[in-house]
Amino acid sequence: MAATSVSRGSAGSAVAPKAKRKAPFPVELYRSSVGKKYVMALTGIGLMGFVFAHMVGNLKMYLGPEEFNEYGEFLRELLVPILPHTVFLWLLRIGLIVAFALHIHAAYSLTRTNQAARTTKYQSRRDYLAANYASRTMRWSGVIVGLFLVWHLFDLSWTGTGYDFVRGLPYENVALSLGRWWVALIYLVANIALGFHLFHGSWSLFQTMGWNNPRFNRARRGFAAGFAALIVVGNCSFPLAVTAGIVST
């Protein structure tokens, strides 16, 4: 029988090992795969809602500079005078950045966990190709969207990117920035990547939340395809409208 070492006090009595202190419940939950899946799903829902609201708000650009600039000022004046000018807008931005960071970390952690747990190969080449395609699409579309988000914030919210940026005049900034063909191309590529990400994310969201009854697969796929198409068409219309001269300074 193997001997078991037991730590003893000065008087020779056995000392029980100290129990590891648990982290707060939300942290412990997030450390589990189930917790990460729910965080990724819930942050995904929040980000989808933001993307939709952002696209709808930007449609005011077609109403002319006065309407669009008033919309931009409305966002900066949210909850004024309860909070100072632009404070609530910055709180929203910080919340979105945190949600985006949690979404990325949860996705990365789950991918690593799945790779480590995969001890057997796929039963067929078709299954492997399908799973690998979905994984690669989500990974690379996520990277493209993340990099584009940083560019987008600098381009139209913070400093501008080489054109005559004027703070407080979003209509003029959009027209001047997207009037450069290579910037319009960046926006088109990024939003097509966003569409792929939204499609796969919307579809897998139902599975993650447990809403995956086979009877609703057709409706799920229709929602995922429709939502992604709506966002891509709406967002891609902005650089195309500037390039076509529909929106100009």
TrEMBL record:
Keywords: Heme, Iron, Membrane, Metal-binding, Transmembrane, Transmembrane helix
InterPro entries the record matches: Cytochrome_b-558 (IPR011138), SQR/QFR_C/D (IPR034804), SuccDH_FuR_B_TM-su (IPR000701)
CDD domains noted in UniProt: SQR_TypeB_2_TM
Main location: membrane
Record's keyword annotation contains Transmembrane: yes
One GO term describing the cellular component: membrane
Pfam families named among the record's database cross-references: Sdh_cyt
Transmembrane segment boundaries: 38-57, 87-108, 140-161, 181-201, 222-247
Keyword Heme: yes
MF GO annotations: metal ion binding
Subcellular location per the Swiss-Prot or TrEMBL entry: Membrane
Source organism, top-level taxon: Bacteria
UniProt protein name: Succinate dehydrogenase cytochrome b subunit
Species in which this protein is naturally found: Iamia majanohamensis
